[in-house]
Design brief:
CATH architecture of the largest domain: Alpha-Beta Complex
Number of domains: 2
CATH superfamily of the largest domain: Spore Coat Polysaccharide Biosynthesis Protein SpsA, Chain A
Structural class: alpha/beta
Helix content: 40-55%
Largest sheet: 8 strands, mixed
Distance between the termini: 25 Å
Number of strands: 8
Radius of gyration: 25 Å
CATH class of the largest domain: Alpha Beta
Number of helices: 10
Order of helices and strands: EHEHEHEHEHEHHEHHHE
């Protein structure tokens, strides 16, 4: 098979995933080496407690291939998103594969399918399993897509993705702090697509929840909290009006209502209405500020090790 004259980078996340790493590298690198003329491997060691880096070194020594291999050592454990941002920023390929996990519940040809789909005119193409995600994930994506600030592509569970250099530059131009890559890519205004595959039976990917990331994503990329606050403000406004009507009818019709009940309920309803109205205003200003600038540096690197 004639190789394509393309420079492709692979960014792989390393954190306590030593099991299966060698098999992943062997299958993936072998497959892409036969397809592309130039390959770069960027492994991001997120302060792992395992021997992932040694596995990478051993793999490179055992394979006589013309490729660039770099290992980024994070200064401390900073999580998947920050680590993968560091790897993507270091990658220099024309196209960049992002592998958040080394568990392969897909056939190797799926790696080629996402690339071929990208050649049809897409800047971000993701591989997605046809299996149903867990309930918490479905709920997150449903809320996120419903309240997203950008009504472009919809988010869903993704296994890995390939992105063009244009997509990387667009993501960087959107801010120095990128808390959730999928949301940034979806909000970039570039064409995105998903390639759906049937997962291999018996192979389970890590589905560890990331509650803090979900909350950050709601704040940065959706108007969910603003809408919720506005809804509660309207509800308490309605309660306030109802109680006001009840108080007037009590005064005019001389109902025997318990002493202090009307005044307490009136005070509470007006107070809660004011609190949520103020919260809506604060969230609106916060949204405007976040649209101007993100908060802080994305990650802290200890050193970069060049293996090949």
């Amino acid at each position: 098979m004639e190789k394509e004259n393309k420079f492709v980078s692979l960014v792989v996340y390393l954190y306590n995933n030593e099991d299966g790493l060698k098999d992943f590298l062997d299958k993936t690198i072998t497959y892409l080496y036969e397809k592309f003329s130039k390959i770069e491997l960027v492994c991001v060691d997120d302060a792992s407690l395992g021997n992932e880096v040694e596995t990478v070194r051993g793999f490179c020594k055992s394979k006589d291939r013309d490729m660039v291999v770099n290992v980024i050592h994070m200064s401390y454990h900073q999580g998947l998103e920050s680590a993968m941002n560091a790897g993507r920023d270091l990658a220099i390929g024309d196209f960049v594969y992002e592998f958040d996990t080394t568990v392969m519940d897909y056939d190797i040809d799926v790696i080629s399918r996402v690339y071929e789909k990208m050649l049809e005119g897409y800047d971000i193409v993701s591989a997605c399993s046809s299996s149903k995600p867990k309930t918490s994930s479905r709920l997150f994506y449903r809320i996120f897509n419903a309240f997203s600030r950008e009504k472009g592509s919809k988010l869903q569970n993704e296994t890995f993705r390939i992105i063009t250099r244009r997509a990387i530059n667009r993501a960087k131009s959107m801010g120095t702090y990128i808390p959730y890559r999928k949301a940034v890519y979806a909000s970039s205004g570039l064409k995105t697509e998903h390639v759906v595959y049937d997962p291999i039976k018996g192979v389970k990917r890590d589905s560890t929840g990331r509650m803090s990331l979900a909350i950050d994503s709601f704040v940065y990329f959706t108007h969910f909290l603003e809408s919720l606050s506005s809804f509660l403000s309207v509800m308490f406004l309605i309660i306030t009006v109802v109680i006001a009507i009840f108080i007037l009818s009590d005064i005019l019709l001389h109902h025997n209502t318990a002493d202090g009940w009307l005044s307490i309920m009136g005070f509470l309803s007006v107070g809660f209405f004011g609190v949520f109205l103020l919260l809506s205003i604060v969230l609106k200003y916060q949204s405007a500020i976040l649209n101007v600038v993100f908060k802080h540096n994305d990650y802290v690197i200890s050193d970069i090790e060049k293996i090949l």
